[in-house]
Protein: DUF418 domain-containing protein
Amino acid sequence: MAADTYLAPPLPTAALRGPVAQADRLQNLDMLRGVALLGILMMNIPYFALPERSTDGFRHDLHSANFWTYAVIEVLFEGKMRALFSMIFGAGIVLFVLRKERAGLPVAGLFYRRMGWLVLFGLLHAHLLLWEGDILYFYGIGGMLAFLFRKLPAKYLALGVPLVAVLGFAASTLFFQHVRTVRFGYVAAQAAQRRHQPLMATQKEQVAEWQTMEKDHLPDPAQVAEHTRQMKSNYAGVAERIRRPTWDSQTKYLFFTIPDALALMLLGIALFKWGFFTGQWSRAQYLKTAIWGYAVGLPLVLLSFYLYYQRGTGAAAQIAYIETHAVAWAGLIYPVQRIALVLAHSSVLLLLHQAGVWQGLTRRLAAVGQMAFTNYIMQTVFCTLIFFGYGLNYYADLQYYQLYFVVAGIWAVQLIISPIWLKYFLFGPLEWLWRSLTYWQVQPMRRFQGAISPAVPVAGALAAEPAM
Structure:
């Protein structure tokens, strides 16, 4: 579909004032959201389970199961699942707005209340459940910004991705060069001290700044051991380790996180308007997109992986790279290969959905996606109780490849439990809470006898609210 405006079919009047009815959901959106949510766990679990720099020991061992597991994850999934989830979130913004506008409800008020609660949930998720990789906080803020651009033509919304990629590369280059300046200042200061020369004030500042950078980004073995001890201790010890860097990412480094999430949400809105996510493209269009996506993305991501492989591992190799490269040109590859591959992956999934292949699995994935908020938090609860010291205390005890047996187990639980839950209830428990808070009214929870099954797709129907 080349049109910039998605013309949605009429919605049942009775359904317009409340949360989306089951019959009004787009199953392919829920399915894609479910895939993205399960895929995100593959990226997150090393941060739940392993100390810093834990991949250094195997990233050059071609005979290691850890290496090949890491390689597959990095090449095919790293960044792509989060990108897909962000894009679906953007599409959900349009769906939410469409229903409220047609019902004559105060769209902005409801939407910003919804995002405000999401920001609060993100803070609780990060600082109460102690997950440093929370995305709810950033999605709440990014969603507030994306809402302002929702009416732009799709072609302009899609331009946000290359614009943010270029600006992001420029910003990261400036930061990288600042790091080099600090590093060279530190080296010069060390040389001056060896000659017993007094340090100038700027040199003292650079020494202190470099030592802080090393502590935060290149921890030595003693620091890694201390962090591991904290993660294997009680709740207070884990909180001490998690909360400060998490708060830094939510405040000091917010500028570096929001543009990427915002650009992907805007791309999701554009793809929704073009009919990509709603299944309106022909099989030939989806197939062509998949072929071009893999043709562009796979060579680039393999090149990127090889370039990072060549850098070496360990703090010494990273410092040597900083000292010998003025610009990290390989960073330009990432945004191109990520978007190419996420579009290719999505096209394949939508082709399979159109063809009716693996319908049982598709229905389960859609149920996982419909309960994305609950399942996302559930993943955190499972992982913290398995790996952190106040749970089963498996932190730093499993090898990298073994983590994905845990991932498979959590996937199985969510693929089984989600459709069973939705057989009896309209929403996941956290979706119900979020909707009740959004409308400031307790929403119905139990499914009435004879209600439409979550497995039933409705042609042309709309999923008016994002599951997360």
In short: Confidence is low (pLDDT under 50) at residues 1-24, 450-464. The chain has one domain: 13-439.
